[in-house]
Amino acid sequence: MDDQKWRDVWDETRAALMALEDSAQVVSKLEREALVTLHASTLSEGITKTLEMMKGTLEEVRTQTHAADSQLGAAVDALTFDILLRKNASP
Hints:
Layout: H1 3-89
């Protein structure tokens, strides 16, 4: 082969390698974007589950508070009734 053919082959090979490098960079960028999307989705799911657990816990606390409030109200009513009975029973 003469020098011109070698230069042509060299130029074509170099251009092909540059195109391949560009393609590899595009693929790498797309893979990074896919990982970021996956991580964001996983994080979002985790936050959603945590909020659901917190909401459930809040509902449990409300239920327990309501039950304790009802018990306390009943105890106050019983004490009040007992005091009134004692006052009426005393001469």
